Amino acid sequence: MAEQEPNLDVDVEIRAARTAVLSVGGELDMETAGGFEEHLTEQLRHGRCHLVLDLSDLAFMDSSGLNVLIRSVHRARDAGGDLRLAAPTPAVRRILEITGVTTTMPPHEGVAEALAAFGGAR
């Protein structure tokens, strides 16, 4: 199920009753952050609180995108799950590192590693 915002593509793959992988491509900025947050909210609403964000095709992210990530990780954790980041591009990884987000959400090399980090809680 692929959805498209103006400059952002989000593909959602349900992996288990409580687990989803969202592949994010394009630009996550002020223009697209609201729609992206709605994708994450929808997953949480359906009980999928173990979320992996595949950032391998995300070319750009600004503070609006960072704020969505931070709000969403708190909501996922409040629901008994977590939000994992996978394969961020060098530009996105740099933003995550500069802002200190990597201390609370360390990025994984790929989707498989991020899913494995959930352990048996899927």
TrEMBL record:
InterPro entries: Anti-sigma_ant, STAS_dom, STAS_dom_sf. Residues 21-118 form the STAS domain. It comes from the Bacteria. CDD domains: STAS_anti-anti-sigma_factors. It holds the Pfam family STAS. Gene3D superfamilies: STAS domain. Belongs to the anti-sigma-factor antagonist family. This is Anti-sigma factor antagonist. It comes from Streptomyces omiyaensis. The lineage of its organism: Bacteria, Bacillati, Actinomycetota, Actinomycetes, Kitasatosporales.
